[in-house]
Amino acid sequence: MKHKRVKIQISGIVQGVGFRPFVFRLAREKRLKGYVCNTSQGVEIEVVGGKVEVERFIQEITTGKPPLARIVDFKVFSLPSLSYSDFTIRESISNSDRSVLISADIAVCDDCLRELFDKDDRRYLYPFINCTNCGPRYTIIKDIPYDREKTTMQPFTMCKPCAAEYHNPSDRRFHAQPNACPQCGPHLTLHNGEGLPLPCANPIQECINLLRQGKIVAIKGIGGFHLAVDATNNFAVALLRERKHREEKPFALMSYSLQEIERYAFITPAERIHLVSKERPIVLLKKKGDSEISPAVAPRSRHWGVMLPYTPLHYLITRGNFLALVMTSGNLKEEPIAIDNEEAIGRLKGIADYFLVHNRAIYLRSDDSVLKVVGDRPLMIRRSRGYVPVPLFLKREGKEILACGGELKNTVCLTKGCFAFLSQHIGDLENLQTLDFFEYTINHLKKILEINPKIIAYDLHPEYLSTKFALEQKGMKKVGVQHHHAHIASCMAENQIEEEVIGIALDGAGYGLDGKIWGGEVLLANLKSFRRVGHFCYIPMPGNTLAIKEPWRMALSYLYALYGERLGQLKLAFLERLDLNKKKLVLQMIERGVNSPLTSSCGRLFDGVASLIGIRDYNTYEGQAAIELEMIVDDRIGECYPFLIKTRGNTFEISPLWIVKGVVEDLLAGMPPSFISSKFHNTLINIFKDLCLQGRKRFSVNKVVLSGGVFQNVFLLTGLKRALEEEGFEVYTHSSVPTNDGGISLGQAVIAAAKTS
User: Fold this and answer.
1) CA distances from 159 to 163, 185, 242, 736 (A)
2) What are the DSSP calls for 652-719, one per residue?
3) Helices 624-631 & 673-699, crossing angle to 10 degrees?
4) pLDDT in tens, 74-92
5) Sign of the dihedral defined by the CA atoms of residues 479, 751, 407, 655, in that order
6) Is the backbone peptide bond immediately before 378 cis, with ω within 30 degrees of 0?
7) In what helix (H) or strand (E) does residue 165 lie, and over which residues does it extend?
8) pTM of the model
9) CATH 3.30.420.40, applies to 518-524+533-732
10) May I ask the CATH class of domain 3-89?
C-alpha cells in the first residue's frame, strides 16, 4: 500500500471548540498515525498512512468539523516519509506570531441541557455545566493559546472524574477549558442588598422565591450582571425603573422556551432561527395583545425585546414558573455593565434587593446582543455577546489598524490581514468608567490577537473622548475619518464593495467637514474619499445637545425658520402647550445664534415632527421620539408631502421646511398623528429615491448604500430599499454590523487602510 505523510495547518476558530478530539477520532477511525496540537496560529496536524485514507481524512476535516469550528485557512504540505507509533494529541505550541481566532461565548448546548436535568447525572442541576460545544469563551480568556491556565478557570483544580473527561479524546469534554462539576468547580452564593452572604441550601430556589415575591435580584451571568424581576409584576417593573433611573427605555425579557414567548409575542420562522441560535441574541418581536407582561416593560412600543436562556443558570431560574423575567443590564445609567462581585454590590446597592453571584471571574464584560429581523435578514442593533470576537472578513489583506469609533454606542475595531475584529458594545463614552472599559478592551484585543497597530483612525469631532484618546497616542500614524463617510464605508466593507457608491447616511449627529452638525447626507463615496453631493438644508439646533433630549426645541426651530414673526399667528396645540418663558428663551437663542449650531440632521427632523404632532416633547432615551413616530405609521397610507430639492453648485439641498409646512397644514386640518407620520415617512422615501435617480444620471453610479442610525427604522429602510430596487438600483444594507454608531469603527478602519495603502 502506498503511504503518504502530510502536515496540515489550519487557522480560524479551531481552539476550544472540540477540534483536536474531532481530528483525533477521525485519524484513529482511518488508522492514521501522527499528531494534532494547538499552536498560536490555530491547529497543526501531521498524519502518515495510506494515500487514499490520508486524502479522505483531509476532505472530512472540512466537511465534518465540529459545529462551533470555523476554518479560515487550510494548508496541506507533503513531507518525507516518517513513522509514528500512534496518533496523539500533543501539548500546545506557543510562539510570538499569534493569529488564532477565538470563539465567542456560546449558549449551553442540547447535550449539556439533557445532563443538567437528568437526575442520574453527576452534574444534575449544576449551573456551570459546559463542554467543548458550548459555554463561556471570550469573556474568560486572558491569553492564548486557549488553555485552562490562561482563563479565569485557572483557580479551580479539576477532580478526578472531570480530569478523566478532560484528558479523554473520545469524551465530549476533552480539553473543554471551563470543565467543572459541583465537587471542583465554581459555585453560587446569595447575598442581601448590603452584600452580606445569606446562608441557604439552594441559592437558585431562593432566588426564584424572591423573584416571585417581586424582589429585584442582580444575577451574575457570562458577560456581566443582569437586574432581574418578574415581568408580569407591574410593581416590581416600576420599582426597577425608578431605582435604575430608566424612565421608559424598553427592558429585555427572558423566557424559558419558545412556548412561553409565543404567549406574548409573534415569532416568524426567521426570528425563531435567531432566538434558538447558539449566539442567543435579544430579538425584537411584535407584541401580542392582552398578554400578562407588564406594559411598563416596553411602553409605547410595538415590540418586546426577547431572548431565550443561554446559560445553565438562566435555565434553572426561568423554569421557576415565570412567563418571562426582565433581564436588563446590571449597571447605573450610562455606565458599563458590572462584572466583579464586589463591584456589582458596590454599584448596584440601592437598586438590587439581593445578589446571586458566583466565584468564576469574568475577565471581559460583554452585554447581550440585540437584533431585529427585517424580511429574512437580521438587522444588528448591538453586536456583542455571542458574536464577538468572531471576525468580519475583508475583501483584501491590509495593515494592522486600530479604529476608535465614535462617542455613542462605541465599539473599537482592529484589523489584521483580511480580518476585522469589531469589539463588543462598549457604550456611550461620556464618563470615566466607560473610558476605562474602552482602553481595557483595546489593550485586551491587541494582546489576545497579537495586533500591534501603527495606524490609528478616529472621528473628526474634537470633543469625543475616543478622538482625544487617538490623538494622544505616540508613534502612530493618525487618520481622521468623517463620521458619515465611516457609516457608508462600514456597510461597503460588510458587503465587500470597493467601487464608488451613492451613500445615504442618515443619523442624529456627526461632525461635518465644515464644522457643522451633519446627519442627512448623500455622499458619492469610495473607501478612500467622498464628496458630499446632497444634504438637508441647515437649521439651528437651539441648546446644542439639549435639543437631542428635548425635541420641542427642534420643532420650534423648524417653525420659526418657516414662519418667522408670523409664528404667533399659528393656532397649534404644540405652541399652546409650551412654557412661555422657555419658548421665548429658545427663540432668542435662535435669533442671536447663541448655542444654536447648525444641523442637517435627519434624526433631528424626526424629533421635530414627533414633537409637532404631539408624540413626544422630551426624550428619556436616545432616539425615543423617532422610534415612537415610526410606531404609529399606518402602511396602508400611500400619500406624501410636496418636497423641494434645490441645486446649489454641484450639491443637492433638501428643504425640510416644505415637509414641515405640510405637517402643519395637516395638523390645522385635524389629521391624526398616524396619518401625518405615514406621509412623513413616505416623503423621505420619495426624496431619497429622487436624489439617487438624479445622482445616477449625473455620476453614472448604480450602487446605493444605506447606513446610519435612522435606518434602524424598518419602515423607512424597507420602503426606500424597495423603491430603489424597483428603479433598478443595487441596494446594500447592514446585516451583521450595526447600522448605528456601533458600526462606524469598522468604517474608520477600512478607510484608514485605503488611505495608507
Assistant:
1) 6, 9, 46, 41
2) EEE-HHHHHHHHHHHHHTT--HHHHHHHHHHHHHHHHHHHHHHHHHHH---EEEEESGGGG-HHHHHH
3) 100
4) 999 999 988 888 999 887 7
5) positive
6) no
7) helix 160-167
8) 0.93
9) yes
10) alpha beta
